[in-house]
Amino acid sequence: xxxxxxxxxxxxxxxxxxxxxxxxxxxxxxxxxxxxxxxxxxxxxxxxxxxxxxxxxxxxxxxxxxxxxxxxxxxxxxxxxxxxxxxxxxxxxxxxxxxxxxxxxxxxxxxxxxxxxxxxxxxxxxxxxx
Length: 130
Hints:
Elements lengths: L3 E5 L3 H14 L3 E6 L4 E5 L7 E5 L14 E5 L3 H13 L3 E8 L8 E6 L5 E6 L4
Parallel strand pairs: 1-4, 5-8
Antiparallel strand pairs: 2-3, 3-4, 6-7, 7-8
C-alpha cells in the first residue's frame, strides 16, 4: 500500500541514535544514511519497498510533529513489540501506552505507543494471535 513513510526530525544525529536500534529490534535493515542531506531509510530485508525514512524537512523549515498523525510499525510478534518498545524508551523515546492487547481494535491487536525524541507519535504493533 505504501511506497514510503517520511518522519521529520529536528536533530538528525539524535533521531538516528533513536531509530537505528528501533529498526534493528523490528528486523529492518538500513538502506542508506546520508548525513549531508540529512536523511536515512530502512527496509524489510530483501525488499525495496516500503521504506521508512527520517530526515530534515525538504523545505528547510523546522520540523513540528502533527496532532493526530502517527506511523504504525508492524512487528513480527508480540515479543518484538515488547523489545522495540523497551529499545525506544532506552534511546530517548517517551511512553504513550505500554505494550498490551487492545481488543477494542480487534481480538489480536497487540501494540505499544510512544513518541520519538522529536515528539512524533509511533505505534509498534502485531496483529497475529499469541
